[in-house]
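Narrative of activities, Objective 1.

The group set out to show that a structural description can be obtained from nothing but a protein's sequence at a throughput compatible with the screening campaign. Below is one input-output pair from the validation batch, recorded exactly as produced.
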Amino acid sequence: MSTNWYKQTTRKIHFDMHTPESVKNVGRDFNPQVLARSVKEARAEVVCFFSRCAYGWSYYPTEVGLPHPHLTRDVFGDEVKAMKAEGIRVLAYVAIDNIPTPLAGKHPEWCNHQPDGTPRTGHGSGTLVCPSQFPEESLIPQLCEIARLYEVDGFFLDGVYQYFNNVCYGEHCRQAFGRDIPREPDDPNWRAFRHWQVQSIWAVLGKAAEAVAQVRPGCVLGVNWLASTRWSVPPPEAIGYLTGDPPLHNCTFETAYHLAAWAWREQPADLMTERMLHHWQDFTCRTPETIETEFATGLAAGGKLFIGDLLQPVEVSPDLEVMRLVRRCFDFAAQRESLTKNVHSVSDIAILSSPETIRQRGANWTVDETPIRGTYLALIENGLTADVLYDGDLEENLSRYKALVVPEQRFISRKAAHAIQQFVEVGGGLVVIGAIPECVAPTEPDSAADASIFEAITGLADEGEYPFNLGYLLLRGTSAEGFWRDGDDFRPAIPVSGKSAKVRAVKAETLAPLTAPGQTYQIGALPPGETMDSPALTLHHYGKGVVIFCALPIATDLWRRGNPGAKYVLQKMARRVTPEFGVERMGPSGVQVFRSEGTGKTVVHLVAYTADRRTERPQIVESPPIISGVKVKLLDSRNPITIHVEPGKTMIQAKRDGRYLIVEPPPFVLHTAVVFDWK
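Output recorded for this entry:
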C-alpha cells in the first residue's frame, strides 16, 4: 500500500474557472509557465486545476466527456506539464453534478429526472445528472481517462451535494432503491431513502477512488464536503482526503468546527479558505490577517491548508497582486509547519452528531447542525478541546474521550446507543441536552424508536415535551446554583427559546426545576412563570460514569441567539461529568486551545480570534492585538526535558500543580504553540 502523499503536504491553492459555452477563446492567451512560476513563487506545494467544470465542459481533449466548445488548446494538460516542471503536485478538479445539453441528448439515462419525468435543469443550459447511473457509466471512466493521460497526483470532486438537493425520480433510481421514491414532505420513507442514498453514493465514490489509484498508483481522491456534519456519516476507506469550502461568515470558526469532525480520522483533511471576501463570485480581496488566523486554526487543529482564487477563462492567468497576498499567508504558515509533522490531534470531549436526526426534517437531507455548533462553541470558549463524532464512529472511537455530549439528538442509531451505554458504564462522562434520545435503526420507521436505553442511562422517564416555545432555568437556591460563570455574584433567570423536554426523575437527582413562561405583556414578552414539577437539570450515576441532563435546548439557543446563560450552563455540565481534562486554556475566551501528541513531544497550540466591530458578515480580522496572560494547564505526571514556544523556540518554565503542568507563554499575536519535549 502506497503512502498517502497528502498527509505530508501542507500548502495548496485552487483556481476556480467555471465557464459556460457562451465564452469564446477559452485558453487563447494562456501561458502555462507563467501560472506555474507564480504558484511556485507563492510557495504553494500543490495546485488544484480545472479538468471539468460545473457546466459539464472539459478543458482537455476528452473522449469520455465533452470539451468546451470554444477550447483553443489542452488547457489542463499544458498546465499539468508546467506545474510538474516546477515540482508542484496537481489535483484535477472535476465537477460531478452537471452534463452539457449535447451529452444529455445523447444519454437521457444520465439525466436527473423530476417527478413528472422531465430532465432537471442544471447550471447554464446543462442538465443535472442521475446519481445512480452517471457516476458508474461516465464519471469513473472520465476520471480514469484523466489519470491515464496526465501525471496527476489526485482529484478534487465537487458537487456531490446536488445529488441530495435534487432527488432523481428516474426509473433507474427507483429500481435501485427498490420501491417508490418519496415525494411529499411528510412521507415516512424519507429516512430509509436518504440512508440508501448515502450508502450508494458513498460506495460509488469509494469505487471511483479505487479506480483512479489502480490506473495511477498513489493518486488520491477527495470529494468536497463528503463525510461532513451535514451528513454525519463517516467516509469510505478509499477516500484519500477530506475537504470543504465553507461560507466565509466566520471561516476561523468553520475551520475549527469542521476539522473537529475530520482531523482525528485516518484521512488527512483541510478546509479551503478563499482570498475572496464573499465566496466564488466576488473579486474583493480579504485581509491577510483574516487568512492567517484561519491558517493558524487549520494547522493547530491538525489539518492541512487550502486557499482558493479565481482565473479568467481566456487568459487563465493569476492576479499577481493576489499571489503576493497568498505568498505572505503561506510564509506565515511555513513558519509553523514543523509543529504539525508526525503528530496527531487529541481532544478530551466528543460531541455526537447523529444522521438519525434528519427524521425530524421531512424531505431535508441535512442534519440540523445548530446544536452541534452551539455545543462546540461553548466548549472551546471554556478553554476545552472537543471533536465531533457520528453514530458510525462511536463503537471504535468513543473510548479515547473523557466525556460525550449528546446535544438535542432526538434519534440516534441502536449501535450508537449501546456504545454510549458501555462508555458510561466504565466511567465515561455524559451530557444529554434537550431530549431523551430514542434508538432506531436507519431502515426502521420512527414508530420503532425506543427511549428505554437512555431512560436507564439518565435515570429519567421520557414524557414527551412541553407545548410552550420558551422555558426558564432559575439557578438561585437550587443545587445548580454554581452552573453560572465563575466570579459573578448574580444569577439571573435564563430564558431558553424552543420546546423543553418533559421528563420525570426516576433515579436521577433533580438539580433545578423547569420554569414555564408566564403571562404575556410588554408587547409579546414572556417573563418567568410557574415552576413545574418536571426537572430542568438532573444528575445521575450510571455504572462508574456521571450523567447530566438538561431539558432545555440550550445548545441551539446559544448558537441562534448568543444566550450567555445557556453557554455557562452547558460549560458547567461538561465540567461536572469530567473529573479532569488533558489540557485547558486559562484566559480570554477568544483564544482556542488545541493539543497534539507525537513521539517524545506534546504540542499545545493557542489561536486568538479578534474580529472587527462590524455586525454584518463576513467577519474580518485586520489588526490582531498582542495577547498576554494566557495559561496552559496540561495533565501529565512526566517532567519535560525542555519546554519551548514557537515560532522562535523561546524556552519557558512550568509550574507543577499535582499532576498538572502550568505554563504561561510569552505575549503573542494570532498564534503560538507550547512544545513539551519528553525525551
